[in-house]
Amino acid sequence: MGLGPWGGDQKLNPKSSTNMGAFATKQIKYEERGSTESSTARKFKIPNKADKGPMGFGLIPSAKAFLRTAFMKRFLTKLYRAEIKKQIETGPQCWTAVSHTDPKDRETSTMNVAMPDFSAEYWCTYIPTSKFPVFKFRFPTWANYAALTIYDATGMPIASINLNDSLSLSPSSSFQRLPDGTCIANMGGQLAKKKGLICAIFRVYRPAGVAITPEHDMPKVYLIERREAKAFDIIKKLDGIEPLPPAGRDLARARGKVIGGTFMAMIQKYLKPLAPHQQGTQFYHPNNVAGLFVNANATYVICFLPPHKAVARVTGRVPREEGWRTYYGIMAVEYESTVTTGCLSFEELGGWGEEFEVYLTDGGEGKAREAGYKEGGKGHFLMDWGGRDGNVGVVLRFLHYFEKEAEEERGKLHALDGREGVLGIPGLAKVEYF
């Protein structure tokens, strides 16, 4: 649901997620998104070069971006209204739709769209124009990552609090931490003068062994009049207000399937075709990541299998464990459908700091063996694109909290342009095609 590479990684705040002629001689020519190495044999064409339009002023791309934003607002406003309207029949509820991709059980799998991670789930609550949410929660201690984020009708975040914030923020009129660790957050202060529908999303990245977030770990949602948002006292005024009842897993999954189909149809309709120079490269940071349910802590880099190849061998090392680097994973994806067909988290790759060779193929295990895959070999993993009708690719996903070291690493990832020989980025893997 726009929560993979389409979900972006724009930086909201540097400290918190609460507020992303070739000459005959060899040479390096630096351009906007990185560098290209040119020689007598070939000039590398940047796969994610920024579009400045035919005259170089960026006017046409800016106009296109404006139209995309306007379209997204119409699309999401219609979606929000439809979901809120359904609550007239059931009564107000929270967490009414879930994105939970389960490759082993297609019956319970929802919203495999926009390249989701199999270990992640996203729970949605739709808020009427006259209300704002106050949350009472304690993020699961078992979670690799968790966050609560409010989005407007363009799919962009208004406010957010993540697991790290919940442990480190100082008490204020909008945030309190109770003695037992439970947090109360008024994330509606910026909504007092803001019109329009909003959506709250609860993100969780689960470790191996947790199939889905238990209901007792879900945040409680209280709806308050929006005109009171800025001055609402979360301690004095929350007493006596009942939280919204959760919709339950069955309803949330059913709505997730419907919404997932809607998102997939929209994305496929407006997805630009891949160009030849965007295939067969090393990893690069996509430049079309903004605009649909951005997660400010997420960074993605991607590469695509060339048409005449059957295997991508991805060789690297899981980065070492850091407090500010909370997740790392690799995914097999389809471009045209935006479906994820395979996923390995840092745990499944052997753990922080472990070396790996991942063989991704659409030609079966035999093709992978020809490329060097050894079943049972140390650090060897096999992933299948499941037969392709279109283009397939590989995504590396990083989650960082906003700290100095993380910002340096994110900056290096953002600069990746698909060329060979980039060093010094923990977790960046080398890709070979066979």
Describe the structure.
This protein has 434 residues and is an alpha+beta fold. It folds into 2 domains: 5-20 and 275-433, Immunoglobulin-like (Sandwich), CATH 2.60.40; 64-266, no CATH class. The protein is built from 5 helices and 19 strands. The strands form 5 sheets. Strands 3-4-10-6-7 form a 5-stranded antiparallel sheet. A 4-stranded antiparallel sheet has the order 8-9-5-11, with no helix packed on it. It has a 4-stranded antiparallel sheet with strand order 12-18-14-15, covered by helices on one side. A hairpin with a 2-residue loop joins β1 and β2.
Give the key terms.
four-stranded antiparallel β-sheet, 5 helices, alpha+beta, globular, five-stranded antiparallel β-sheet, Immunoglobulin-like, 434 residues
Overall structural class, as computed from helix and strand content, comes to alpha+beta
Provide the low-confidence segments as ranges. 1-41, 52-61
Q: Give the strand order, joined by hyphens, for the main sheet.
A: 3-4-10-6-7
Average of the residue pLDDT scores: 83
Number of domains: 2
Order of helices and strands: EEHEEEEEHEEEEHEEEEEHEEHE
Short description:
With 434 residues, the protein is of the alpha+beta class.
Element layout with pairings:
Layout: E1 27-31, E2 34-38, H1 59-90, E3 97-100, E4 120-127, E5 131-137, E6 145-151, E7 157-162, H2 163-168, E8 175-177, E9 183-186, E10 198-205, E11 220-225, H3 249-270, E12 298-304, E13 311-317, E14 325-334, E15 340-345, E16 355-361, H4 364-370, E17 380-384, E18 392-400, H5 404-414, E19 430-433
Parallel strand pairs: 16-17
Antiparallel strand pairs: 1-2, 3-4, 4-10, 5-9, 5-11, 6-7, 6-10, 8-9, 12-18, 13-16, 13-19, 14-15, 14-18
